[in-house]
Amino acid sequence: MILRYTFIILIFSVTIVQAKEIIPAAAVPPALVNGQKTLELSSKNEVCYFFRSADKKKFNRLNALHQPLTEPQLDEDDTVYNKRAPVWKPAAQVIAVNALFMGFNRYVAKADYSYVNSETWEKNLKSEPEWDSDHFGINFIGHPYQGTLYFNAARSQGYSYWQSLPFAIAGSLTWEYFGENTLPSYNDMIYTPLNGAALGEIFYRISSSILDDRTRGRERAMREIAAGLINPVRGFNRLLQGKTFQVTDKDVYEKEPLNLTVFAGIHRLNEQQNEVFGKGGNNAMLSLQLDYGKPFEVARRKPFDFFRLRTEFSTGADTVGGMINNVTGYGILLGRNMQIGKLALLTGAFQYYDFWNTRNFELGALGFGGGVFSKIEFRKSINLYTNVHLGVVPLAGNSTRFGPDTNGFRDYTFTNGVQSKVESTLTLGKHVSTSFVYYHFWLHTFEGLKGSNSIGIVRPRVTVRLLKNISLGYEHFGYTTNRWLKDYPNQRSVITEQKLFLQLFLEAPQRSGRYN
Question: Which domains does the chain have, with CATH numbers?
Answer without folding.
Answer: 258-506 (2.40.160)
